[in-house]
Every structure is written in structure tokens, then in C-alpha cells.
Write a structure and sequence with these properties.
414 residues, alpha+beta, Jelly Rolls, 2 domains, four-stranded antiparallel beta sheet, 10 helices, 12 strands
Length: 414
């Protein structure tokens, strides 16, 4: 009974305290910031109107696009970016009925949206192959790439771009994209063409935040390439400095040259993805056309110098020839001049590149060098090498470390 008598006033006290809590919360301080709604961002999935070709009249808001194709930019389950594995990736026009097409194409959409008092609408576009011009109500607001009259555009790798929409007298606005894709994309994967991510529309400050986040993600994704360029630069300096300890061995300079080419490749890769200093055509010209074949050829020369394959004086000429053939095949295969069918890229890869040929030559002669060393060890007691020539004795005026240096280096790499 005593416990029941104490329970009633306890419950009454809890009820009073709980009732007073909300009463205090209803009295907000005078300087409290109100919660603002309407700063959201909407993905313009569609339906978009799409048409291949090019006509300046297609930017006009009164143009009749009812006969155009309808395109939906909604991500599909199981489809992801082949490079970043982003599930929001959308397949390009080459998979939507236009395989092998490169050139101009237009996207149009009508949007019923208006900004609040003192606000402006903005749009963010990203992930478009390769470049584009953006129009709102028939007015050019900006572009990604350099579009020149009578010439092919200069385009860059996709980067987030923000465009502020001007005030419009009507609530419905017509947005149009004039997209250009060159033939280089067709040589790399079959999902190319136009939009791969739906543009974002919203209040300008919210779009600015989304653009900033997209840039941070872009930098984070390719940060490893920037780090590698710094590492290869340090290795270049280190390898070049070894010549100060042994000026007679030029292999260190070849190693430094190989590291320098590796650093150049990573630097070009980073600049192409982070900036507009390197265009798409310049990237493939430098990265695939020259730096990659020259780097492999340089490493083949390192092996030839390292193992002292003096009995095969034709190896440097073979490496140079194979590297030159690889450069030619890459330039033809990448279709850098917009006049050679992209299928030649597959032909050049089927024939084999100069990189692989140079590497095979180096491996063959390294194996021959190793077999020759084993044969000389077995024939060492007779004082003659397996070919019948008298073995040349080591120089006794050199210290043991100098006499064994090349032998130790040879064993470690084997």
C-alpha cells in the first residue's frame, strides 16, 4: 500500500515536468535562424528531346521538336560508369540507336520552374561526351570546350560546369544543349555519346554547392595520378644522381629517362582531368601516341644496358624501330586526325604494339644472357668459354666491390 501511495504523486510530478518542456521550447530566442525550404536540387532526367545533326534554329524556344526522339536520363539498375563505377551513369547515344555516330547532336527540354524572391535558378552539367554549348530560351549561356566557326571544336575531359539562368518572363523555359563528340571516344568503349549524367537544376547557391562537391570528387578520384607524378619525379632525380658515383655506367641515365617519361604520363593525365590545359586530342596524342611507346622503349634500353648485351648490337635499332611502329599504330588507331576509321585501332592492337615487341626482345636476350652465364660457369675449369674463345680474366687492379658489382646486380634482377 505504501508503494501505491507513493506512485500516484510520482506520476503526477512526471506529468507536470513533461508538460513544461514543450512550453519552454515554444519560446524561441529572437535571433534564431528560420528554416528555409526551396533550396533543393532536381535532376533533369527527362523526357528530353534528342536529334543528331546540327542546326542553329534548334536552340530557339519556339522550335517544334515534337518529331524528335525521346531520351530518358534516368539511371538503370546494373549500369555503372566503366571508369568510376558510379551507379548514376547513363548510357550514351551509341547504345540508343546511333552506334558509331560522332559529330553534333542536340538535347532539348521544357522546364516549368521559377526562382523565389531574390533568388536565381542555375544548372550544373557534368559527364558529357565531349563538349557542349548550353542555351536557355535561345540564348547562349556558356560552353564546355572551344567552339569555332568552320572548325572542329576543341574539347576537354568532362568537368562540372555551372550556368546561372537569366530571369525569364515566362514560367516555362526551354533548355537546349548542342553536344559535340569526336571519333576518339569510339575507340575506347561502346557506351559513348552525349549525356552520361542528368543535369541538375535548382537555386543558384544549392547548385554552387553541388558543383563544389563534384569538383572535390573529381580531384579525389584522380589524386593518385598526381601523387605518382611526384613519386616518379623524385625517382628521376635519385636515378640521375647515381651517375655521380659511377660515371662509367650510363645505365643510370637511361633509368632516369624512363622515370621521367613515367612522370610525364601521370602529369599529363592529371592535367587533362583537372584542368583545361590539355585537350582530349592532345591527351591521346601525348599519352597514347608518344609517351607510352617511348616509355616502354626506354625500359627496354635500360635492360639492354643493365645486362650488357654487347653481343647483340642490333637491339637498340630494333627497339627504336618497334617503338616507332607503335607510335604510328597508336596515332592511326586513335583517329586523331578525324579522317581514319576507328577500326584501325583494333587492327593495330591485333598486330601487337612496339611496346610488347620491345619487351619480348629484351626478355629473350635476358634469357640468353642467363644461359650463357650458366655455360661459362660449367666451362670455367678449362679456361675457355663455350664458343671456343679464351676467357678474359677479371681486372685484378679493381677492388672486389667493383669487380663483383655487375655480377651482383645481374643476379638480383634475375
Amino acid at each position: 500500500m505504501k508503494n501505491r501511495d507513493l506512485l500516484v504523486p510520482t506520476l503526477f510530478l512526471v506529468f507536470i515536468l513533461s508538460a513544461r518542456g514543450p512550453l519552454r521550447a515554444q519560446t524561441a530566442p529572437a535571433n534564431a535562424a528560420p528554416i528555409l525550404f526551396g533550396h533543393s536540387v532536381v535532376a533533369l532526367d527527362g523526357p528530353w528531346k534528342f536529334h543528331i545533326g546540327d542546326n542553329p534554329q534548334w536552340a530557339e524556344p519556339n522550335f517544334d521538336d515534337s518529331q524528335w526522339e525521346t531520351v530518358d536520363l534516368t539511371p538503370r539498375p546494373g549500369v555503372a560508369d566503366p571508369f568510376t563505377q558510379d551507379p548514376k551513369y547513363v548510357l550514351g547515344w551509341t547504345t540508343l540507336g546511333h552506334p558509331g555516330y560522332w559529330g553534333y547532336a542536340w538535347y532539348r527540354i521544357r522546364v516549368a520552374a521559377a526562382a523565389g524572391p531574390g533568388e536565381k535558378l542555375a544548372l550544373m552539367a557534368d559527364g558529357v561526351d565531349d563538349g557542349y554549348q548550353f542555351f536557355a530560351q535561345g540564348k547562349l549561356l556558356g560552353s564546355h570546350g572551344q567552339f569555332r566557326a568552320g572548325k572542329y571544336p576543341i574539347v576537354y575531359f568532362p568537368q562540372p560546369q555551372m550556368f546561372v539562368l537569366p530571369p525569364s518572363g515566362t514560367r516555362t523555359q526551354v533548355l537546349a544543349f548542342r553536344v559535340w563528340m569526336g571519333p576518339l571516344r569510339l575507340s575506347h568503349h561502346p557506351f559513348t555519346g552525349g549525356f552520361h549524367y542528368a543535369p541538375l537544376l535548382g537555386e543558384s547557391s544549392a547548385i554552387a554547392e553541388q558543383t563544389h562537391i563534384a569538383w572535390l570528387e573529381l580531384v579525389r578520384h584522380y589524386a593518385f595520378a598526381g601523387l605518382l607524378s611526384g613519386v616518379f619525379l623524385l625517382l628521376t632525380i635519385l636515378a640521375a644522381s647515381l651517375i655521380l658515383f659511377d660515371r662509367s655506367d650510363r645505365v643510370y641515365l637511361w633509368v632516369a629517362g624512363a622515370f621521367l617519361l613515367a612522370m610525364s604520363r601521370e602529369l599529363v593525365f592529371s592535367l587533362a582531368n583537372w584542368t583545361q590545359l590539355v585537350s582530349v586530342r592532345e591527351f591521346f596524342l601525348l599519352f597514347e601516341g608518344f609517351l607510352a611507346p617511348l616509355a616502354i622503349g626506354m625500359w627496354a634500353m635500360v635492360w639492354w644496358k643493365w645486362f650488357q648485351l654487347r653481343r647483340f648490337p642490333w637491339v637498340p635499332s630494333a627497339i627504336a624501330t618497334l617503338a616507332g611502329l607503335d607510335v604510328i599504330c597508336e596515332l592511326l588507331g586513335e583517329n586523331l586526325f578525324y579522317a581514319i576509321p576507328p577500326s584501325l585501332g583494333h587492327i593495330s592492337r591485333g598486330l601487337g604494339s612496339g611496346e610488347a615487341g620491345a619487351a619480348r626482345v629484351a626478355r629473350i636476350h635476358r634469357r640468353q644472357r642467363h644461359q650463357g652465364t650458366r655455360q661459362r660457369e660449367l666451362a670455367g675449369a678449362s679456361g675457355r668459354d663455350p664458343h671456343g674463345f679464351r676467357a678474359i680474366p677479371e681486372r685484378v687492379d679493381q677492388p672486389p666491390s667493383a669487380r663483383n658489382f655487375h655480377r651482383i646486380r645481374h643476379r638480383r634482377l634475375l
